[in-house]
Design brief:
Helices cover about 70% and strands about 5% of the residues. By secondary structure, the protein is mainly α.
Length: about 350
């Protein structure tokens, strides 16, 4: 074939030929993988330099590498994050707060305590809770919610969907909630009763997409910081892909080691020490600074100053995109079918 080079005659492939072809492909990928990982881990900015210079055949594609490594990272993340424990703890605290609020109201009527003050159980000890959270919760419950012209009083919603449906079944057809209002109330009840499921859905499904969306935005910020160098936007984007891949490899390796330890019935004690996470964050920061220094070729003074602006810009972008993602997650929880 003049277009693809495929032979016109179909030739049978022997089993030995298939094995040989597979072995050749494995060796080719293995060499690329080793060369890419070695340069990525120990020579910050080098792979981006090679990519810009056109030396790309010997290394893995930056985008393909990012997708693969990030997918493995979030797979391990989903295995070790204790969402079930979060749900149990949330339910326990909610129960304590509700009981404390009820006791506080009784004591307030008896004159033994100020209205709105409560006590909750923390690690088995009874401690007084400040009025601020209680007042905030009461304000949220008192304030009506408006959805497309429908008014919903939060405090009047039943605890479960089953209770709400039972109440509705007792009403006449004329006094029942309209379909849209009925649907919204059920979604609100489900949303309030399943915080752990909402968190799990957001972090396991939304966070990878969030980071993927943030990459091109951060590359724009990098182009603004280094606007005098007249580099193409794609060059900044490739640099961002490489640095994020390093982040996923570092933290993914730590999480994988902890998952392995958990499978053996133990745990890595160093992960319970805040200094460990500070050290890992410091390694990522130092890696990025070295990458800036090598790839953009400026002095240490300019590199550190621009690195400071890049870091704060990244944190701002993450907070902004995370807020948008959280909003969409809440709207999806409220309005998605099912």
């Amino acid at each position: 074939c003049g277009q693809c080079g495929q032979e016109n005659e179909a030739t049978p492939v022997s089993f030995a030929g298939l094995l040989r072809e597979g072995w050749d492909e494995f060796i080719k990928v293995d060499k690329k993988l080793l060369a890419t990982l070695g340069k990525l881990l120990f020579r910050p900015g080098y792979l981006t330099e090679e990519y810009v210079r056109g030396r790309r055949t010997a290394y893995l594609s930056p985008f393909k590498m990012y997708i693969t490594v990030s997918a493995l990272f979030f797979l391990v993340w989903g295995l070790i994050v204790p969402f079930d424990r979060v749900e149990e703890e949330t339910a326990r605290i909610a129960s304590d707060i509700q009981q404390g609020m009820a006791d506080g109201e009784k004591d307030a009527k008896a004159g033994s305590r100020k209205k709105g003050s409560i006590s909750i159980q923390v690690n088995g000890k009874t401690v007084p809770a400040k009025n601020g959270p209680v007042k905030t919760w009461n304000m949220m419950r008192e304030k009506p919610l408006q959805f497309f012209g429908n008014r919903i009083q939060w405090k009047d919603l039943p605890e479960t969907v089953a209770e709400y449906r039972a109440e509705e079944s007792k009403k006449s057809a004329a006094t029942r909630d309209k379909p849209i209002l009925h649907y919204l109330k059920e979604r609100l009840i489900r949303f309030g009763n399943n915080p752990a499921d909402s968190a799990k859905s957001l972090f396991s499904n939304g966070l990878p997409f969030l980071l993927l969306v943030q990459l091109p935005l951060f590359a724009i910020w990098m182009r603004l910081i280094y606007f005098r160098q007249r580099r193409l936007y794609v060059e900044h984007l490739v640099f961002v892909l490489h640095t994020h891949t390093f982040f996923f490899l570092l933290f993914g390796g730590v999480f994988a080691a902890n998952a392995l330890a958990q499978s053996l019935g133990t745990r890595l004690p160093m992960l319970d020490i805040p200094v460990t996470w500070l050290m890992l964050t410091g390694i990522v920061t130092f890696y990025n600074v070295l990458g800036y220094k090598r790839f953009y070729g400026q002095g240490w003074g300019k590199t550190l100053v621009k690195g400071w602006f890049l870091l704060h810009g990244y944190l701002f972008l993450f907070a902004f995109t995370f807020s948008i993602a959280t909003l969409f997650a809440i709207l999806w929880t409220l309005f998605a079918p099912g």
